[in-house]
């Protein structure tokens, strides 16, 4: 009808799963290039032989690292102890989620091309995160292509509790 809404997205269906949230996991290959995110990252990493897995970079539950001592040059440790820049890990994750959202919209609207300039992105964060963590999220979102500059009206960093409250009101 053209006015259909996407209220729920399920993850992992290609792996026989159906969950409302994807795991916060990301995989980079041995050349430090983004490979995949979520269940696809988990499945690929688990399929690698031990000798090959040592050369890849697998990160999981890395969003919790933004609670303490955030700097723009901060590094994150992969599962085997190797590190990559945190900004790279977060921006690639946001970029992947952005592409997934755009593909979901396109499929739901029968391949109608949506104008990205019309989209406002909302990233939710815990209220306990510092101003430095919020600034870091802005930087990662810009690098991921969610905002063109630091004062973009198309990107909103919102507190999880406030968004949950608004959603309950909506219901």
UniProtKB/TrEMBL annotation:
Task: Keywords in alphabetical order, please.
Answer: Stress response
The protein here is known as: Heat shock 70 kDa protein 12B
Q: Which organism is it from?
A: Aptenodytes forsteri
In terms of superkingdom, the source organism counts as Eukaryota
């Amino acid at each position: 009808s053209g006015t259909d809404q996407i209220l729920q997205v399920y993850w992992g269906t290609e792996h026989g799963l159906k969950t409302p949230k994807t795991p916060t996991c990301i995989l980079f290959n041995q050349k430090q290039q983004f490979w995949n995110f979520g269940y696809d990252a988990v499945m690929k990493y688990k399929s690698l032989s031990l000798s090959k897995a040592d050369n890849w970079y697998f990160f999981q539950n890395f969003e919790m690292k933004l609670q303490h001592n955030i700097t723009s040059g901060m590094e994150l440790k992969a599962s085997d102890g190797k590190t990559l820049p945190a900004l790279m890990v977060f921006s690639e994750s946001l970029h992947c989620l952005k592409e997934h959202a755009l593909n979901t919209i396109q499929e739901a609207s029968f391949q109608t091309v949506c104008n990205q300039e019309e989209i406002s992105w909302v990233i939710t964060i815990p209220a306990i995160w510092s101003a430095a963590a919020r600034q870091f999220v802005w930087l990662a979102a810009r690098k991921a292509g969610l905002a063109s500059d630091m004062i973009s009206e198309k990107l909103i960093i919102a507190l999880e509790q406030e968004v949950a409250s608004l959603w309950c009101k909506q219901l």
